[in-house]
Amino acid sequence: MRIPWGESYIIRLTVWTLAACCMLNLNGVGMLVLGVNQLFSPVLLLVCGVLLLLAFTRQLPTSNEMQLYIISLFVYLTIGTFVAIFSNVNTINLGLVPSLLLRYFTASIVVISAFYSVFFALNTKLEPMKLLLILCVVASMFIPFGELINVSGKLVVDSQRGAGVFGNPNEASIVTAVGFALTVNIVKRKWLKLSLMLFFVAMSLLTFSKTGLMLIALIYFANILLAGNFSMAVARLLTMLVVIYTLLIFFKVDILNQFEGNQAKRVEQFLNIMLFNPSEGVVESSRGYLWRQGLDKIAQHPVLGNGLGALHSMQGAQVSVNNKVAQGVHNTYLLKIGDAGVLALIAYLGFIAVTSLRAIKLSRKEPAARFCFLYMIIFSIDSLSSHNVELLRFHNFLLGYSLALLYLAKRNQHKVYA
């Protein structure tokens, strides 16, 4: 597909704008700095519209995995809406349903636009994974400065945890994990690879996110295994465990003395897990409490669920960290079955399983497929700790982007064997 120079420039600008809006959380930045909600949404929707129109006019293909994801989303929204409107379940706020339908529709538009942005990036001589790595570096650089960015004070930002442009340390840690996955996958120069790996680990540490640190460790060893170096992966894992275990035995108290209050409890729990002693000093987290509340609702209506929105905002589920506002279940798998029943959960798990298996088959020869698999690890594990995974703009972008990279990897292999 040959693109004229002037049109190429516009398309490159459109792709960069979409990527920046999502990966740098520009809507969140607008809220943090100016106190204005959804400031960049018109820009985001405009570039999505341009990309979708161009994709339609050029009859660009879609992928089976993308179709499978849209089907899983359709199943969840259809059953959840039907149950919310026609059932006798009285534990949901019907006012949430139109809002959630609009949010999921917008999210699906971003996912599809991100999918096609990869095609346009390649056709205008942009390197998709390099572009993504640059944005991960930029987003991670702001992690230590979350309090300074929060000029408006409209969002509650934890002063003891780095959150950067996201205002949420857990979301910031996910971006560091994505950056780490890209680094181990595409960076060739050893000094640059090591520097970037250490950078992303350091930024993840500043978020104090157990999920983020666990993801980085999983990505590191999964990447070695995908390269076929099983013995090296085992040797490095054992070496790392021995070194960490030895250091923690001698310096655990010194490490804990550097923190105070709730942050000290979080660090102590994390260290106890690493020392294989999770029973010591365990206190139930807010997330654990919310999971129990969600499971109670699931037990009441396990087949068709409680209706769309029931586990997005659970009546009676209030935690102190959010000023006792009704909370969501903080687990996408529980959300699916709790809102729309067993079929919605099966469809979601089916999408993750099929995409991961197809990516892993090509991962030895195709770096794009390897990144897709590594991202599916991030996506599936983040689904364990967040119910808003499908509504976060950076996840929308990354999901569409990785599915396009998988499609291109499959196409390359077909050319090789043709």
Short description:
With 418 residues, the protein is mainly alpha-helical. It has one domain (5-417). It is built from 16 helices and 2 strands.
List key phrases describing it.
mainly alpha, globular, two-stranded antiparallel ribbon, 418 residues
Order of helices and strands: HHHHHHHHHHHHHEEHHH
Number of strands: 2
What share of the residues does DSSP label as strand, in percent?
A: under 5%
Q: Which outline best applies?
A: globular
Low-confidence stretches: 279-283
Give a description of the structure.
The chain is an all-alpha fold. It has one domain (5-417). The protein is 71% helix and 2% strand. It is built from 16 helices and two strands. The protein has helices at residues 5-23, 26-34, 41-57, 64-86, 96-123, 128-141, 146-149, 169-186, 190-207, 210-226, 230-256, 261-274, 286-300, 332-362, 367-385, 393-417, and strands spanning 314-318, 326-327. It has a two-stranded antiparallel ribbon with strand order 1-2. Strand 1 (314-318) and strand 2 (326-327) form a beta hairpin. Helix 1 packs parallel to helix 6, helix 4 (64-86) runs antiparallel to helix 5 (96-123) and helix 14 runs parallel beside helix 16. The protein starts with a helix and ends with a helix. Mean pLDDT is 84; it is low at 279-283.
Fold topology:
Layout: H1 5-23, H2 26-34, H3 41-57, H4 64-86, H5 96-123, H6 128-141, H7 146-149, H8 169-186, H9 190-207, H10 210-226, H11 230-256, H12 261-274, H13 286-300, E1 314-318, E2 326-327, H14 332-362, H15 367-385, H16 393-417
Antiparallel strand pairs: 1-2
Helix pairs in contact: 1-3, 1-5, 1-6, 1-16, 3-5, 4-5, 4-14, 5-16, 6-8, 8-9, 8-10, 8-15, 10-11, 10-15, 11-12, 13-14, 14-15, 14-16, 15-16
